[in-house]
Amino acid sequence: MGFGGCTAWQMLEEGARVVITDIQDDRGEESASEMRDAGYEAIYWRLDATDESQWSEVMAQTIGAFGRLDILVNLAGAQDRGTLYEVEVDEWRKVMEISTTGILLGTRAVIPAMTEAGGGAIVNLSSMAGKFAGEYGSAYAMSRAGMLHFTRASAIQLAKFGIRANSVLPGWVHTPFTEHIYAEDSEREWRSERVPLGRWGEPEEIANAICFLASDEASYITGSELLVDGGVTAGFKGNTMPDRDCGNEH
Questions:
Q1: Which of 207, 214, 230, 208 is nearest to 3 (CA)?
Q2: d(CA 190, CA 180)
Q3: Whole-number mean pLDDT of the chain?
Q4: 3-class DSSP state for residue 73?
Q5: Active-site residue set
Q6: Cβ neighbours for 79, distance < 8 A, ≥ 6 positions apart
Q7: What is the pLDDT of residues 131-189, one digit of tens each?
């Protein structure tokens, strides 16, 4: 599903062995089964990203199954739909817990195995929302901005272990996570008009960025932020500015 599914398939095609984690057991098991049926090595294990004990269990299971760990992709997330004066405190805490505490626990959990393997790569899925504020989703935007600074701190503090940490910032991409927006013609078109490339992104395009940062081709890249947003955060794009008559004067 979405970024995670596309990334897992691409990594498998590049020769990786994959552990899928989620709290949706039926879908996770189905995905792993499809991958095994296609001839790849893939396992699903349940993981609540905010539960430290479950991270420890998944790490033990991963090392037991594959003997090592080289890559971690942190992409668990949740979204609040209201304004900062409407959001329920419990909802705020849930979003922040998943996006911030979740990547802390995941990052700490993989350090021993990656160090033992001689290094590794961590890719954190933030969002272009971490670069600007909007009319809703304040907890989401704040948590994604926090992920960017956490990634920079990780890059500095984990370099001595040979571990690189980078972040990918997707723009508007059609996934199950954004289906409720994409399904509304006005919502979808409003966003498309504001993308310099003129369209929503595809999950495969985000997976390409993740796989690059996780690969040896990015061996000298750490602490970076890779925007994959069709140019949205590069500047203003729209047709609301009045036309200007520049005349012939110099």
A1: 207
A2: 14
A3: 90
A4: strand
A5: 140
A6: 95, 137, 140, 177
A7: 988 787 889 999 999 999 999 999 999 999 999 999 999 999 987 777 777 777 777 88
